Amino acid sequence: MAELKAIGANTARPVAPPKDRPAPEQPAPEQPAQDPAAALRYTLFASRFDGPAPAAPRSLEGLVDSGNWGGFKTKFDKLSRPKQLEAMEKLSPPQREKLSNATRSGEVKSKAVSITLGAELAARSTWGQGEGKATVDNFKRMYAKGRVEVSEKKVGGGWAYADPAKKGSERGVKTDSTIYLHPTLLRSPDLLASYVAHEGTHALRMKEGTRKPLFAEETDAHVAQARVWNQLSPPSKRDGAEGNYPGVSAKDFRNLRTMTEAYVNPNADAGRAAVRAQVERWYAP
Ligand SMILES: [Zn+2]
Fold first, then answer.
1. Shortest CA distance to 114 belongs to which of 60, 187, 181?
2. Does 35 have pLDDT greater than 60?
3. What is the rounded distance in angstroms from the CA atom of residue 118 to the CA atom of residue 61?
4. How far is ligand 1, taken at its centre, from the CA of residue 251, in Å?
5. How far is the CA of 109 from the centre of ligand 1 (A)?
6. 3-state DSSP call for residue 53?
């Protein structure tokens, strides 16, 4: 506070006059600028208040808009899982698009961001707003309860699987499950969204005890997956798009394309038949 004292000494404070006498003329206060040393001290003192106002706590939306990915990830990861889901719902579609691109490029590496973003993309798809709504809602509840995990393990060569809590339980048995996602999916939110549809289909049916026989069950799951992925990544945009899916091999990408593009055949029955043929090749004993 040395500067403060120096300035105080340099700018004489007028003494309040007694009330019964008119105030004497006050001499003009000495200007700090007249004393170079005092002027410098004054400038240093005032500069403490001239800087930008301290930054207000920034919203997640603001952090996305400014591309502050480090700040976004830190803040997002600290939220509880239900709050993460809420925060992802609140972002605008362009903000989610921007976040998707940052996830794809590796600027954002967060399991929580990728999973909730994938869930929200699935929820906003035509499928998620219609026949898939209960499936996505159930997926979100599972995430909130810690029943969506990331695992390197591939079951049946797939990138995701729903693991029933009641082992060996078959059709007609109601059971909770845990969904495991391969880390590759975390880099591609639209692909992850398609697996929300696929594994979510199995998980909801396990919960309700309505699983179908394997082949029919897998066909339904693949069709739901195809609907979401076809919408988020239309076939017209897929040529040479392998590079948009970090970690996905050309062969895996071809498989996904074959299965999902068949379903967008203008003739729905033919499209479905093609999907069934593909699924049959994968799952027939
Ligand atoms: Zn499946």
1. 187
2. yes
3. 17
4. 19
5. 27
6. coil
Long-range CB contacts (< 8 A, 24+ apart) of 92-99? 92/61, 93/124, 95/61, 95/64, 95/65, 96/120, 96/121, 98/64, 98/67, 99/64, 99/72, 99/189
CA of 216 to the centre of ligand 1 (A): 10
pTM of the model: 0.75
If one counts every other C-beta atom within 10 angstroms of the C-beta of residue 138, the result is 19
CA of 247 to the centre of ligand 1 (A): 21
Question: How far apart (Å, rounded) are the C-alpha atoms in residues 112 and 38?
Answer: 56
Both tokens assigned to 276? 């069934």
For residue 185, what are its two tokens? Answer: 């999916």
CA 221 – CA 206 distance, rounded (Å)? 13
Q: Whole-angstrom Cα distance, residue 220 to residue 57?
A: 46
Model pLDDT for residues 105-127, shown as the tens digit of each residue: 999 999 999 999 999 999 999 99
Gap between the Cα atoms of 248 and 183, Å rounded: 11
Distance (Å) from CA 110 to ligand 1 centroid = 25
Q: Which residues contact residue 213 at a Cβ distance below 8 angstroms, ignoring those fewer than 6 apart?
A: 171
